[in-house]
Design goal:
By secondary structure, the protein is an all-alpha fold. Helix content is 74%, strand content 0%. The chain starts with 17 loop residues before the first helix and ends in a 6-residue tail after the last helix.
């Protein structure tokens, strides 16, 4: 008889451990709640609150990606975010979900190609690409639905550009600073 152990006797190792799943869920819910709070406290969707809420959401996304560090974290973020939006607002699932999943996978691939999840530059580039692709998809969808009224598409484009500016100006630098501080605190470990 051979000395090899039975394959079912060894513990299974899953790609997503419980801690990573909990972190993705918490950060996604926190991002949704913070965005809603900023919009409500700012008096609705004005340019300032749009700029600020997108910056906060991007900063939290940078921390999430730097903390979890697994390929597919952005895709999981999209799925959990869609589920949370469904539970909060009701209604059906977004028609754009496959497009957002594709943009998340492309952004994850960019992070992997730029040196991986341990490099802050790669994380920032991936999150910036994810935000850009998501906004481009939203604008394209608006263009399809309101092509008879181009003035509405232009207004939507201005709001989308302002939101992306908030991501670049506030979100990415603050997210990088948060990650640095969380590494010093030992919350994000260099394993």
């Amino acid at each position: 008889m051979s000395d090899m152990s039975h394959p079912s006797s060894s513990p299974r190792s899953f790609y997503w451990d419980t801690e990573s799943l909990v972190v993705v869920g918490l950060f996604t819910a926190l991002s949704k709640v913070m965005s809603l709070m900023v919009a409500l406290l700012g008096g609705g969707m004005n340019p300032f609150t749009l700029f600020l809420k997108n910056g906060i959401a991007t900063a939290l996304l940078v921390v999430l990606v730097a903390r979890v560090r697994k390929f597919g974290v952005l895709a999981l973020y999209v799925l959990v975010g869609q589920l949370i939006s469904f539970l909060i607002a009701g209604g059906g699932m977004s028609i754009l979900l496959p497009c957002f999943l594709l943009s998340a996978l492309v952004s994850d691939a960019l992070i992997a190609a730029c040196g991986g999840y341990r490099r802050m530059g790669a994380v920032l580039a991936g999150v910036a690409l994810y935000d850009l692709l998501g906004r481009a998809i939203s604008l394209g969808y608006s263009l399809l639905h309101a092509r008879e009224n181009m003035a509405m598409v232009v207004v939507a484009g201005v709001f989308i550009a302002l939101g992306y500016l908030g991501c670049i100006v506030i979100g990415l630098p603050c997210g990088a600073k948060f990650v640095k501080e969380l590494r010093h605190a030992g919350i994000i470990r260099e394993v």
